[in-house]
């Protein structure tokens, strides 16, 4: 049975945890990790949902940062640009899907994610 969060504040902070990955447009190198990390550290003890989703977002953002770094290296092999475009679109879609799910109180699990934090 799927768990659903009903507290509006908890859902809102869960959604902000996902959306904070867009901080990468302000801090290009690490904003996608720093944004969610800040919300996670501030709200993890207050809301169980933020604790869970914060770990999920951080795992996803670290995994995809590694993927983007590999793609940048592969620019020299000729396929990196296509990889960056494809992975960039996938990243954007997945962050939006995760944000919408969290705003609905659903515990979202990103696909293709290495579990650094349990």
From TrEMBL:
InterPro entries (UniProt xref): MamF_MmsF
Protein keywords: Membrane, Transmembrane, Transmembrane helix
Superkingdom of source: Bacteria
Membrane topology note: Multi-pass membrane protein
Keyword Membrane: yes
Subcellular location: Membrane
TM stretches of this protein: 21-42, 62-82, 89-108
Protein name per the record: DUF4870 domain-containing protein
Organism of provenance: Draconibacterium aestuarii
Lineage, uppermost ranks: Bacteria, Pseudomonadati, Bacteroidota, Bacteroidia, Marinilabiliales
């Amino acid at each position: 049975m799927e768990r659903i969060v009903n507290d509006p504040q908890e859902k809102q902070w869960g959604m902000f945890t996902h959306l904070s990955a867009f901080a990468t447009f302000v801090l290009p190198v690490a904003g996608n990790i720093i944004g969610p990390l800040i919300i996670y550290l501030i709200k993890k003890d207050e809301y169980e949902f933020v604790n869970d989703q914060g770990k999920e977002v951080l795992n996803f953002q670290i995994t995809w940062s590694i993927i983007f770094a590999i793609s940048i290296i592969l620019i020299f092999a000729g396929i990196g640009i296509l990889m960056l475009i494809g992975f960039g679109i996938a990243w954007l879609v997945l962050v939006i899907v995760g944000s919408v799910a969290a705003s609905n109180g659903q515990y979202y699990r990103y696909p293709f994610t290495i579990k650094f934090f349990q």
